[in-house]
Amino acid sequence: MDPQKYKALFVSESREILSSFQNELLKFERQEAGREPIDALFRAAHSLKGMAAAMSYTGFADLAHAMEDLADHGRRTGTLPTEAVDLMLEGRDRLSALLDEVEANDEVSFDTEELIGRVRQQQRALEVPLGADAASAPAPKSASAHAPEPPISGANLTRVAVRFSPDSPAPQVRAFMLHRQLAQRAEVVELSPSLDELKAGRFPDRTLVLTVRVAPDKLDALLAQARVGTDVEQVDDLGPPQRRRIDQPSGEPEIGEAQRTVRVRTEILDEFIDSVGELLRARDRLRAVSEQLDLPELNEIADELVVLTKDLHERVMSARMTPLSLLTERLPRVVRDLARNSGRPVELSVEGADIELDRALLDELHAAVLHIVRNAVDHGHEEAEARAAVDKPAALSLVVRATRDRDHVLIEVEDDGRGIDPARLRARAVEVGLLDEARAQALSDPDAIELICAPGFSTAEQVTEVSGRGVGMDAVRSTVERLGGDLQIRSELGQGTRFTLRLPLTMAIIGVMLVESGDAVFAIPTNRVSHARDFTPAQLTSSCGESLVRIEGELLPFFDLGALLGNSDAAGPVEGTVVLVKDTSGVAAVRVDRIAGLQEVVVKPLGSPLASVDFLAGAALLADGRPTFVLDVSKLVRQEAAAA
Amino acid sequence: MAKRVLIVDDAVFMRNMIKDIFSQGDFEIVGEAANGIEAVERYRELKPDLTTMDIVMPFKSGIEATKEIIAEDANAVIIMCSALGQESLVMEAIEAGAADFIVKPFKGEDVLAVVRKVLGGGGAS
After folding, report:
1. Could you give all domains of chain B from N- to C-terminal order, each with its CATH number?
2. Is A8 in CB contact (< 8 Å) with chain B?
3. CATH code at A417?
4. A529-535 and B50-54 as β-strands: parallel, antiparallel, unpaired?
5. How far apart (Å, rounded) are the C-alpha atoms in residues A163 and A142?
6. Cis omega before residue A37 (within 30°)?
7. Which residues contact A152 (CB under 8 A, 6 or more apart)?
8. Chain A contacts of B31, Cβ < 8 Å?
9. Within this chain, do residues A515 and A602 fall inside the same structural domain, yes or no?
10. Which domain holds residue A331?
């Protein structure tokens, strides 16, 4: 058989096995959930070992084997020291990296010896105190007696020594089976090693000495019968194994009805969505034609198709729903590493991990949530003395909580750390030239806190500072907004900080307002539109070089979609419509020629080079088949602010 | 007539590999199970001529499943799929009535040799 053809399955199944590995390990370390986590770890390492061996990935299999043995120690003793858990995590990471290599390359050198050495060393160090009794206990004396004196005399007693092939991977089992077969046909009066010794893995020289009560001339026939196959050895591997008895997993949870599932690559689900999108458009065209022709039968079919496609759409969308746990189960490891590295303890709790989100959203959110969590530990965590002084527990409390809010999900990351200091953020904004002193001072505290999401706000030196949460928060915000959500930050100095990500349950289809500028049609997500007004150039004014438009007594930042696209009229904006768009940092007015309607569209991310165009969030196909761009409103609003 | 085979292993990878091995002979894969509980259920339902049984599985080990199956059907032919280091477990399975064993990583011809032996030899000892 050709192992290469199993490679994809090997990689995907190994990944799946590894995915739960570290959380089980951390659960075990925290002594949660009894035996199950360590049993699961043992099974995981064991499965990986077997699969890798079948693929002849020796270095991979050996590492998994060493980890299996370490897990076995954990099973037997109910505990593993922190260093052993570290090694298990390191091993898990290495296996995971090796899988990437296996997937990408035909030839992989599994350079795992050094790590295996450390895992083995750790295991030996653990075994010594525990195994001391067993190791020093005298081996049963008959065990090594290859040819003991006949203990029994009598008629028809025959002694034979049976030596097993060195190729046999489990000679003691073969010996055990031989004895069993013989014993069914004749009386075995003496056996060395004994059955118990065989079971315990003691089988010196692979030689079994039997004394059987049988007529000498019958012995050959008897042995021939009993030996069928017992010498026939398969498998190249060798080495007398000397492992202890392995207990079976126990205390298993109820399985309930077996889940009947198949695994589907997420890209296939994406393709489904595309196809369903196409189907929706075809349906709409058919619908239009049937209305024109007004054939009752065709109308009926079109109506039926509407119901069916709607149903299909919902089913495909539900197939894409994935529990948030896919994201949150990676958090304990991250938090553990952060806490270990910083030397400051963190108590993580996750709530609502069973809430389901569109898979594509989850993938995008992952980095954002990790970033917030990292910042909370890196920058929100006070020194131990500072926490003690205000009676906070030593461990930073970090809560990641998901809740449903109709068709949205709220993901909150909350800590009880030092909080964000608005005064420092104001000072920082002035320092980096983002705001002048007067504007900075005019900001309310909540608005000042929002500054951490301003592009270019953070710098490397700030990472070490108290208020250094700014690193990459602008990326977090734009991710969330691109997904059709928003980000809220609440912080009390000395009390802690809460980030709230509010996201639609699915990203695939969003409502948009279509607007026209020149020949082009653009889409603005309806959740970003506050309202629209007629526009005349007379409403325009300017302040400090910034274009403003007066709408119902209010002055709002103004820009012309045509100008943004490089189609500006030399005479300046002409009459048309302004669409008022909002984001958390304010409202802006966008002039367009006219509003072309509302529609639901499937938003696709942009590829290079369009992805670098700042004010585009994605692309979509309209019902009539025309492509359109979806505007990134927040970027527009901020670009305007930055230009000011 | 093709021998009817039930494959029990918690790894899809292993099941596929074993399936491939059996595709080289006169066998029909009638079912698969991914844990000990499923194994017993599927055995009951399918009454296969031959069952390959992984040992380390969630919910119920292959040893427990073997014991339960043999208790219900003394003529069941079960081949344990073991790994190095599991000798004592294999002996336990054989005491319980398993017909034979193979050791991972295995080669196709070795598996078929064991299978031919146990089926040709009238099954469990």
Report:
1. 3-120 (3.40.50.2300)
2. no
3. 3.30.565.10
4. unpaired
5. 17
6. no
7. A189, A190, A211
8. none
9. yes
10. 323-504
DSSP A493-555: TTTEEEEEEEEES--SEEEEEEEEETTEEEEEEGGGEEEEEEE-GGGEEEETTEEEEEETTEE
Same domain, A359 and A389: yes
Final residue belonging to a domain, choices A504, A532, A566: A504
A330-348 tens-digit pLDDT:
788 888 888 888 888 899 9
- The whole model's pTM is what? 0.47
Q: What's the mean pLDDT when you consider all of chain A?
A: 76
**Number of structural domains in chain A:** 5
Question: A535 - beta bridge partners?
Answer: A576
Q: Residue A149: is its pLDDT beyond 50?
A: no
Give, to the nearest 10 degrees, the angle between helix A113-136 and helix A58-77: 40
Contacts of B103 in chain A (CB under 8 A): 169-170, 234-235, 237
Q: Which residues contact A369 (CB under 8 A, 6 or more apart)?
A: A327, A331, A400, A411, A413, A501
Q: How confident is the model over A503-508, as a mean pLDDT?
A: 69
Quick check: is A373 in a domain?
yes
Chain A, 130 to 189: residues with Cβ < 8 Å from chain B are 169-170, 172-173, 176-177, 180-181, 184
Would A624 be classed as within a structural domain?
A: yes
The ipTM estimated for the assembled molecules is: 0.80
Cβ(A373)–Cβ(A400) below 8 Å = yes
pLDDT at A203 over 70: yes
Q: Cα separation of A607 and A601, whole Å?
A: 18
Instruction: Report the candidate in B42, B61, B60, B58 with the shortest Cα–Cα distance to residue B50.
Output: B42
Same domain? A564 vs A609: yes
Question: Residue A436 domain-assigned?
Answer: yes
Instruction: Give the pairing type, strands A586-592 and A576-583.
Output: antiparallel
**How big is the CA angle at A101 (ends A96 and A104), to the nearest 5 degrees?**
130
Query: Which residue, among A274, A264, A272, has the nearest Cα to A604 in the 3D structure?
Result: A274
